[in-house]
Amino acid sequence: MRIFSLIIVLLIGSDYAFSQHSQDVLKAVFTARFIQFSQWENEEIFFQKQDKFYFYSLSEKSINNELEKTLSKIVLKGKKVEFKKISDIEEALEANVIFLSDDCIECIASLINAVENKPILIISDADNFAEFGVHINMYITNKGTIGFELNMKAFEKSGIMPNSGLIRMGKIVKQ
Known about the structure:
There is one protein chain. This protein is α/β, with parallel strands linked by helices. The chain has one domain: Rossmann fold (3-Layer(aba) Sandwich). The chain has helices at residues 2-12, 20-36, 43-48, 63-71, 89-92, 108-115, 129-132, 152-158, 164-169, and strands at 38-40, 53-57, 75-76, 79-85, 97-100, 121-124, 136-140, 146-151, 160-162, 171-173. It has an eight-stranded mixed beta sheet with strand order 3-4-2-5-6-7-8-10. Helix 2 crosses helix 4. The longest helix has 17 residues, at 20-36. Residues 12-17 have low confidence and may be disordered.
């Protein structure tokens, strides 16, 4: 846990304003860590039934390139990651994790309703999306660093829980 905290401090500790590419790289790394530090209910049994870890993005933004590059290099929950860019909410129901950006504002309510009470983690990088029901939302702080919000009600409904380190470091929002 101390290593994770140190990595976060090193990645976001300065007042340096990141370029969009640098932000995308860091957000992709954060996304992978958020998944690693979240636990699905009956995780061992749940992931035994799958041959891959399914990460889907509904975003059209450039971050998809960094997400795919980062996630293709790691194993999550003991499985190789399959990254897939999707455009349909029905496809999202097959995911373990869904990523959204602000270009998904029109579909967020439909997506949240479709996956509510399902073990699907939703991560975004769009202003105020945690208030709409996204589990983890990244944002750029006033200092130009990356912060994140957690929607504990969304976590509870999905049967997924963030570890205590994420809870301590994140900002808790109400839905």
